[in-house]
Structures are given as structure tokens and as C-alpha cells.
Amino acid sequence: MNHDAKREDLHDVLIVGAGIAGLALALSLSRAGRRVLVLDARTGAEKGAPPEETFDQRIYAIGPGNAAWLDELRIWSAIDPARLTPVYDMRVYGDLPASRVLPLAAGEDGLHLSAYRSAIGELCWIAEEREIARALEAAAGFAAHLTLLRPAEPVLMLQKPDRVQLRLADGRQLEARLLVAADGAQSWVRSAAAIDTQVIDYQQAAVVANFHAGQAHHNCAYQWFRREPDGSGGVLAWLPLPRGQVSMVWSVTDARARELLALDGEALAAEAAAAGGNALGDFRLAGKPASFPLKNLRAEHLIAPRIALVGDAAHVVHPLAGQGLNLGLEDARALAAALAGRRDCGEHLGLRAYERARKAAILEMHAVTHGLTRLFGPAHPGLRAIRNIGLNLAARLPALPQLIARHAAR
């Protein structure tokens, strides 16, 4: 390593990972005048423009607070509005036998979250990973003080009292006051910094697919805590997409996921529609289905000397609350705020302020998602009755659904 790096070779912040949280943080810091270098292990080869009627398999629910921050960064307005969907209502139902058709039209059972009743514009926005990433990449290309380096693979890290030194696989040497890990759940930086993690493998997978729905979704999202045909617990979510489509995220056991993925398109569409009581009529598959494993991961610390963790490098939660990316964007917002006005981006006081600002929210989301996963997992009939009664009682408390909606919309 070069221990005599010149000032102009010393970056304020070096971010490993060019995903959504990493690039959003880089843009925020660069617009505050910081010299930022982002490393991306990918080649960055451009993908062809998606067909107009095709949407990503990876769909995110972006909270209004994060949408407003992206708007401040001039990113939100760069996203194609024809590929965004506001969610005005959400209906959540307890687990019932898979054969039962739910009485959705009556609206008597379950929890109803309403933006209108909660006096907010929308509960969230549904957006594609690819479209958000495209807008961020475009902005990064024009940002002052920001350099995107790819492909770049770190192989050695040294933490010094006043800087972090990084060596890449091709021999290049880099230095920065602060190194940010935004490199995902298998974070190289987190491992190199010897930050331990707590991991829970749910032995489940999320099956994702998009469908043309036979009936209008009216900007409503649906979620069911289900009892699957094999007696296991499952969580089915439908998220509204433009042009009458819906995005499905169906969290089930690994064995059940393999069953669903083995179905042909017509059979999978029928199964997905029936699982939600045919609330939106018949489904027709739009694009290929996919799946990804479900785990709960939490880093024991968000910081180390001259290092900060954001996004999936810091935490991974069950998708039932749709808050994974929101947590990552909130990390980026909090870190940018903690560094504001500080001469040295890597000083301990700034990093401690970041960790304190995020600790409670991260613990809360882990507790909620893991608790719900455990509560609705067992198939005992008595437990099913108790938790469904609890869900319906919560829906009947006059202020509770509105409080939940406003909290989710932060």
C-alpha cells in the first residue's frame, strides 16, 4: 500500500457496491461537495430497453419519505411515471384454509390500511429495481465529485487511524477517509472488517411473478397470511402495477416453492389467483417467474473504525412488510445527515451518530418481520384462530389502522 498518498488521491468516501442504496448515498454526498468513489464488481453492460408491457421481477414498495428524498436528489422525477404505481389502500388477511375463497368484496375480515383515511397522499409507490437503478446511473454519470469505477474487485483492506486503504484485484490502490459497505448480504467489506452477523435461515423462498389481472386493482395491495395445502404457513402479496398488472410475492417453504415453479404458466396463474380468493379475477402470466431464498440477517454493528454499513450489508429482513429497500435508503439518508458539515467523513463521532440514528428502526423492523413470520408459521388450529381474531380486532380499533398506515408511510 502507498502510505504517502497525496491529498488529491485521498477520497472523502469510498463506497463498495453500486446498488440503489449505494448510488443514492453517493449522489447525496457528492452534492454536498464530498469526493466520492463508487466501486462496482459488475461490468455495467447496458441492457436493452424492456418491452413496454414487461415489468421487472424485482419490484419495490418505496415509502413516501424515501420518494421525497429521491426527489430532492432529482432522481424521482427521472423515473418513467408510466412505470410507477401509487398504492392508496392495503388489505391484510389472516390465514384460512387454502380451499376457502375469501369474502373480499364484503370487506368484513382483515385489516384495511387507507391513505385517504390516514390523511396522506399514498401508502407507498411501487417501482421496479431496474427503473430506479437506471435513473440513478444516469444521474451519477453527470454528478460532480463522483466517480464510478467498474469492474472493480477489492481484495485487501487496511484500516488506518486517519484513512482506509483498499487494494483491488488488478493491483490498483485506493484510499479514503471513510469506506462504506453497500455490497449486499454477502458483503466483502463487512467480512474484511470482522463484523459478525446474526443469521436466521427460514428455509423458505419467495416466488415472484407478474400477472395480467382480469379485474382492476384500483391501486390496492393485498396480503394474506395463508395455510398452504401441505399445512405450512405462507405469505402471499399482490402489488399493483401499471396497465392492470399485479406483482406477486409468495413466501413459502422451499418444497412448496419448487412445486409452484414446476407449474406451467397457465397453471401457476390459476394457482396464484385462487390463493387470493380470485379477488382480481383470472390471472395471466406476464414474463417469467423466479424465486430467491429468505433469510433474516443483522450485522452486530453498523460501524467499525473508518467503516459504515448500509443496506443489505447491514440487514436483510423477510419481504412480508416490503421494507427491505426502504431500510437501505433510510440508512443512506441517515449516514448522509450524520456526515453533514464534518471535516473528516470517517471520524468516530459522526459514525456513532449514524449508528445511534438507525439502531432502533432496524431492531424494530427485524422484530416485526421475524415475529410475524413465527406467529403465522405454525399450523395449529388454535393458534390460527387466536391470531386471526387478533388481526380482525385490530382492524376494528378506530385509530389503529391509521396509525399503522402513517408509520408505514414514513
Question: How would you explain this protein's 3D organization?
Answer:
The protein is an alpha+beta fold and 410 residues long. Helices cover 31% and strands 29% of the residues. The chain has helices at 20-31, 64-72, 129-142, 188-192, 254-261, 265-275, 324-339, 348-375, 381-396, 400-408, and strands spanning 10-16, 36-39, 59-62, 85-87, 89-93, 111-114, 124-128, 146-149, 154-159, 164-168, 173-181, 197-213, 220-227, 233-240, 245-253, 283-285, 290-299, 303-304, 307-309, 315-316. Strands 5, 6, 12, 13, 14, 15, 16, 17 and 20 form a nine-stranded mixed β-sheet that branches. Helix 7 runs antiparallel to helix 8. The protein is globular and about 60 Å long.
Features:
410 residues, eight-stranded mixed sheet, 10 helices, 20 strands, alpha+beta, globular, nine-stranded mixed sheet
Contiguous runs where pLDDT drops below 50 for at least 5 residues? 1-8, 97-108, 389-406
Oligomer: single chain
Total beta strands: 20
Provide the residue-averaged pLDDT: 86
> What radius of gyration results from the CA coordinates?
22 Å
Beta fraction? 25-35%
Helical percentage: 25-40%
**Global outline:** globular
Major sheet? 9 strands, mixed
Terminal-residue CA separation:
44 Å
The ordered string of helix (H) and strand (E) elements is: EHEEHEEEEHEEEEHEEEEHHEEEEEHHHH
Structural class: alpha+beta
How many DSSP helices? 10
